[in-house]
Amino acid sequence: MLSKRRACFKAVVVYLTLLTMFGILFVNHIRTNLNSTNEVFRHLDNKIKQKWTPSIEVLNEKRYKKEPEDKSLKRVTFNISKTPEIVCIDFTGRLGNLMYGYAFLYAMARSKGLFPVIPDDSSLPKFFNVQNTTLSSIGKSKKACATLPSYKERWALSYDEKLTQVPQIKGANFFGYFQSWKYWIPFEEEIRDVFQFNEPIKSKAVAQFNAILRQRHFTIGRESVVVSIHVRREDYLSKENIKFGYLIPNATYFRKAMRYFRKKFKNVFFIVGSNDIPWCREALAGEPNVHFSVGNSAVEDMALLSLSNHTIASVGTYGWWIGWMAGGITLYYKNMFVPGSDFAKTFRNESTEDFIYPGWILME
């Protein structure tokens, strides 16, 4: 009987010993994991607290990437032998309009399996990473587009879903302005790659941007940003355009937009591009940290302004593309047209929803 009690006692002692050892190991395991977790949080907290002040060169590398952000995305090259049917559009207008036209053309070619045709004298391949897909480059007649079924948009500044319903792998000729991001949003990253500026436009813009900030002793950081301002005026003030229903913002809009960014960030530097710089100098007189861009061509100014962190746009497609290229916050003028005017009718139901890029802020 005594031997049984001793055996039972030993078993209890062994059990308690093992339980104690397990408890100690468990506590140490928890303590180690907690320390490790706390270390991770401390690391993240330190990263957050660190003031991020990238060099201008780093900023420009992000703006002018050599490859699309999506590493799995391969640059598309159109080949007439693989897509024998062509798609054409009636390119009209200046730089901003031409870019809208090409973005639409590109999307139609990609989605319908067609070869996109640009004019022989197109400036787009000189400015951007646009493939030189002319009729002459594929040995087709200059009248080839005219023989295709034609389609005309219903609204110049709204999405027309009927245009996207044309047959697959069937040649088509489109007429319009196609000023809606909805046409090409499925191929947006490819479009960003296409609209990368060529040399020497890129190099000149980067050099100008760096020189401007160095001269003003301005350094970009988390609380220090550069905001581009595009002011569209002269051509919008013609009698024909005023009668058509175009509206442009006054100085109050630009000053209000500048205040918006000054409240949001500690230090703000503005770069102004316009077809009416004298008006801009007068309208923005007294505003600190402002540089007025002069002497550039339209595409050179676009390249320069697109390097900013954020954008203040007035009206028109030129400023639209600057905001899209720059990314960040974009303020766009709300009152683009006179209600009931001919220009208002170029928007479906007089709505700017299909024209204004998602996330942009309308201001008046």
UniProtKB/TrEMBL annotation:
Its main location: Golgi. GO terms for biological process: carbohydrate metabolic process. GO terms for cellular component: Golgi cisterna membrane. It comes from the Eukaryota. One of its GO terms (molecular function) is galactoside 2-alpha-L-fucosyltransferase activity. The keyword Protein transport does not apply. The chain crosses the membrane at residues 7-27. Pfam families: Glyco_transf_11 (PF01531). It is found in: Golgi apparatus, Golgi stack membrane. Keywords: Glycoprotein, Glycosyltransferase, Golgi apparatus, Membrane, Signal-anchor, Transferase, Transmembrane, Transmembrane helix. InterPro entries: Glyco_trans_11. This is L-Fucosyltransferase. It comes from Crassostrea virginica.
